[in-house]
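step=encode ok
step=design start
structure_in=
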């Protein structure tokens, strides 16, 4: 038990963090950007723990058994046990006790802790995200969360004081009211749950869509508008999903669905899954004993490979059966137990086989595709001996070019073998988690197998981009730790080879992988991420319009004009119901309002990129707002001019075809050009500037992690490869969290963009330099 428990706990921590990482990435950055207190952020993230533990406790038990027994097998202690008459069934008893404890812990997580934690997570994040309206309003970005109201602020001087405010209000269907104010602010009373928009020193312009000639306007010193409080303070009574319900609630829901004639597969499956997951600890513990208690010398690294394969098979079978059950093709009460029955039978058979043939390892034969034959000299040995050809020898001066030495090749082989193993294991986790997420769509008939495979193909590069640094870190830690444990580093030092020289091959691999990351980012990720997002939307049934410019109806021109349109067809460059607001930027007053039923370019195809092409507007009107002085008093004058057809000067069609940007779908050059355009136009470009610097900073992490891992592994090397794997995953996850936190701080304006992007590298790089300078070389 002392051999099994430490690796079990060490595996539990990184596995739990790996499964918690996707929701962390989705929620932590948003919470930090909104200025949520750290205590609340940690509380939100802790509610994710039961969901992850219900899956990772069985996995950690399997790894713990394999690592513990793998160490006994590698050091021939299991051979000694057999020589003393200790059978595999005796070894099974303490493992069965640990499996029982793990089953009890998993049952507590799935039956008691999981429903409450999931519901708490949904309620907390729902309230926080909804109540952050005042922090969501950014300068020069349209805010559309208020129903039928669009808010645009040109500048924010303080957190609560806006300069140059534009508000379009269409809450009344028969009129549109436009407010243009010099100042404004949002006043939220959380106790009374009221929201007010206060505007100072402005004008209001009311138009009537069905009565073009009718207009109403005026000015104000201060205007207070009551906003829809439900958009800020949403109801916290969220409808519970199946994962947020207790067993009693699931049974009531299943009975109600049966009475109403609706499917209750999900509820029946979830009830049984709450018991099948704890039982998985017994099954995986049995398999761990059968595969770990052997006379082979693979050790813990080999156990990691075997454990990853078993985990992959288990969860693929589990969630495949779930998808089939939810599609109505398998009884939902049987589906969660199917994988336990299959693997449990396999575990019993392997244990019995191991007990009968203790001296024979479990081998899986792989057919060879070729045979090696000894080369035969042409003409035979006699012919070769009988003739001596004339040989011309040209001597070239020998140059001692830098090349890998025997030591470099030896270390590189160990490094690459562990890197490939870690890489394949982490990619397997990606496929497992993705299959878990999309199994319902596949077996429910929403997505085909070919579509899912295409999604895997295009989504894999992004995941590879993230796991290459993790695999390189684990490979460096395990390689150096192994050299230290076997005293090979001591021998190298005795021969005059320092730690710096021994790690040269590892550093070169770090540089190579950093270059590969940048090349992958520039050559592959932009296109693959776009296609993966498209396929993901199709699989999940998202509307196509939600991914493009078709859903955008407000845009600011290069000169500061505000455009609103109902429909823009990018194929024909045709606007429907176009409104153009021309404002005086110095005084922030509305000078001209133009409306057209439709508008299209006057020129033919080929003018898509020309600056300020002529457009033809049809069926509209123009209102010019001026002031006239009479008897020392100023009064507003509105000049209304209807037209059947007239020319307009707008931006080129390509300007309206630009989609909402996503840094993951842009190369460094594309994002740099976009950020430059935003800055030149005075837009809020800080979040994109942080992402731009991160595109350069992140690939360097492989080299920094290698520099950190070499002295770290030399210090803990006597603990062996297991601690190298655990420490590597923890360091990688800490780095990833640092990227999220500093990126959110940069996007929120708390740090400069370049510092926010490079801060994780600076921190980990400083730690690496310190350890390199203090480690015994």
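sequence_out=
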């Amino acid at each position: 038990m002392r051999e099994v428990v430490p690796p079990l706990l060490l595996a539990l921590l990184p596995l739990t963090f790996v499964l918690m990482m996707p929701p962390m990435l989705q929620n932590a950055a948003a919470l930090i950007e909104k200025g949520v207190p750290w205590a609340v952020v940690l509380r939100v993230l802790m509610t994710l723990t039961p969901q992850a533990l219900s899956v990772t406790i069985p996995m950690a038990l399997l790894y713990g058994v394999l690592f513990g027994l793998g160490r006994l097998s590698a050091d021939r202690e299991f051979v000694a046990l057999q020589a003393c008459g200790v059978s595999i069934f005796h070894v099974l008893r303490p493992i069965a006790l640990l499996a029982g404890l793990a089953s009890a812990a998993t049952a507590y997580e799935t039956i008691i802790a999981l429903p409450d934690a999931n519901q708490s997570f949904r309620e907390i994040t729902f309230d926080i995200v909804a109540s952050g309206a005042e922090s969501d309003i950014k300068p020069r970005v349209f805010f559309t969360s208020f129903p039928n109201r669009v808010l645009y602020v040109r500048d924010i001087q303080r957190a609560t004081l806006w300069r140059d405010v534009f508000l379009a209000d269409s809450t009344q269907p028969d009129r549109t009211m436009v407010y243009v104010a010099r100042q404004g602010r949002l006043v939220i009373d959380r106790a009374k749950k009221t929201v007010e928009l206060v505007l100072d020193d402005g004008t209001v312009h009311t138009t009537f869509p069905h009565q073009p000639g009718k207009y109403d306007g005026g000015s104000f010193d201060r205007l207070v508008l009551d906003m829809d409080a439900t958009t800020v303070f949403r109801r916290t009574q969220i409808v519970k999903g199946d994962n947020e319900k207790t067993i009693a609630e699931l049974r009531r829901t299943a009975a109600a669905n049966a009475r109403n004639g609706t499917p209750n597969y999900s509820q029946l499956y979830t009830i049984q899954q709450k018991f099948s997951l704890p039982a998985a600890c017994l099954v995986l513990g049995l398999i761990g004993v059968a595969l770990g208690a052997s006379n082979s010398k693979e050790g813990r690294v080999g156990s990691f490979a075997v454990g990853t394969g078993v985990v992959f098979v288990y969860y693929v079978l589990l969630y495949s059966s779930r998808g089939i059950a939810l599609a109505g093709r398998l009884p939902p009460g049987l589906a969660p137990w199917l994988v336990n029955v299959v693997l449990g039978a396999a575990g019993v058979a392997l244990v019995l086989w191991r007990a009968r043939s203790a001296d024979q390892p479990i081998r899986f034969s792989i057919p060879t595709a070729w045979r090696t034959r000894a080369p035969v000299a042409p003409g035979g040995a006699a012919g070769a001996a009988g003739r001596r050809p004339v040989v011309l020898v040209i001597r070239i001066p020998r140059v001692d070019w830098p090349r890998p030495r025997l030591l470099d090749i030896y270390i590189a082989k160990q490094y690459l073998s562990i890197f490939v193993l870690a890489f394949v294991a982490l990619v397997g986790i990606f496929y497992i988690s993705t299959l878990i997420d999309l199994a319902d769509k596949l077996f429910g008939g929403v997505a085909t197998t070919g579509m899912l495979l295409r999604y895997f193909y295009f989504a894999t590069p992004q995941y590879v981009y993230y796991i290459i640094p993790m695999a390189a870190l684990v490979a460096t830690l395990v390689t150096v730790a192994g050299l230290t444990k076997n005293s090979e580093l001591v021998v190298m030092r005795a021969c005059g080879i320092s730690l710096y020289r021994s790690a040269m091959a590892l550093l070169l691999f770090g540089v190579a992988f950093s270059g590969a990351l940048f090349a992958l980012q520039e050559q592959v990720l932009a296109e693959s991420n776009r296609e993966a997002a498209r396929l993901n939307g199709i699989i999940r049934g998202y509307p196509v319009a939600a991914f493009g410019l078709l859903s955008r109806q407000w845009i600011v021109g290069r000169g500061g004009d505000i455009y609103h349109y109902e429909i823009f067809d990018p194929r024909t460059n045709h606007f429907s119901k176009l409104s153009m607001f021309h404002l005086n930027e110095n005084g922030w007053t509305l000078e001209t309002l133009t409306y057209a039923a439709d508008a299209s370019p006057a020129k033919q195809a080929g003018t898509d990129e020309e600056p300020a092409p002529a457009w033809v507007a049809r069926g509209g009107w123009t209102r010019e707002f001026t002031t006239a002085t009479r008897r020392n008093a100023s009064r507003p004058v509105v000049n209304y001019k209807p037209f059947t057809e007239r020319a307009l000067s707008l931006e080129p069609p390509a300007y309206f075809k630009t989609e909402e940007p996503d840094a993951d779908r842009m190369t460094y050059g594309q994002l740099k050009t976009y950020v430059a355009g935003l800055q030149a136009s005075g837009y809020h470009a800080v979040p994109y500037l942080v992402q731009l610097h991160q595109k350069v900073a992140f690939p360097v992490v492989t080299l920094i992690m290698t520099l950190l891992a070499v002295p770290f592994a030399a210090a803990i090397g006597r603990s062996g490869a297991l601690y190298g794997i655990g420490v590597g995953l923890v360091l990688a996850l800490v780095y990833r969290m640092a990227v999220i936190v500093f990126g959110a701080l940069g996007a929120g304006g708390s740090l400069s963009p370049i510092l926010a992007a490079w801060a994780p590298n600076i921190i980990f790089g400083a730690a690496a330099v310190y350890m390199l300078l203090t480690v015994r070389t």
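step=design ok
step=annotate ok -> The chain has a mean pLDDT of 78.
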